[in-house]
Design goal:
162 residues; 4 helices; globular
């Protein structure tokens, strides 16, 4: 099993354990900002990359949004490209060895723009093996370098340690 597959399996286990795990609630804090990007970049379609259970999409996105999350069966099918790719609280769950590949994939899927929310601290949540759910914890400068290299058309919001 590859490192990527290992972490997908750890996420699958938490999805199955509770409806509360990875419900997709972090997107709700950024709906206004995402709506502004939709207008600014003339986006007709949205992809929520790493959407979890996607329980918090606003009604006005229905019909133009698709979800992708390889650890949740309902959204595990490879996504189609979209005008805007939204990726909220996902990148810190990706092993560092896969960051380049995931960002390159997101960039290929984004016709117009990307929006990221990246947490820069350890998670409170643990996997069933007791390891931390945030496997790549880096500074905003580190993330900015990766985004500029592999996904240059982006807006990013960092969640910083308190």
């Amino acid at each position: 099993m590859s490192e990527r597959e290992h972490y997908i399996e750890l996420h699958r286990q938490l999805h199955k354990q509770s409806n509360l795990h990875f419900a997709g609630k972090s997107v709700r804090n950024y709906i206004t900002q995402i709506d502004s990007l939709i207008v600014e970049h003339r986006c007709k379609t949205i992809l929520d990359y790493g959407c979890g259970k996607a329980q918090f999409w606003p009604d006005h996105w229905q019909g133009k949004i698709q979800g992708y999350d390889p650890a949740y069966e309902k959204f595990s099918v490879e996504p189609a490209p979209a005008d805007l790719v939204v990726c909220c609280d996902v990148m810190e769950h990706i092993p560092e060895s896969e960051i380049k590949n995931i960002l390159s994939n997101i960039n290929q899927l984004a016709n117009n723009w990307t929006f990221f929310v990246i947490d820069t601290k350890r998670a409170k949540k643990k996997f069933l093996d007791n390891s931390n759910c945030h496997v790549t914890v880096q500074t905003p400068a580190w993330w900015q370098d990766k985004l500029d290299q592999f996904c240059p058309r982006h807006t990013v919001h960092y969640q910083l340690p308190k």
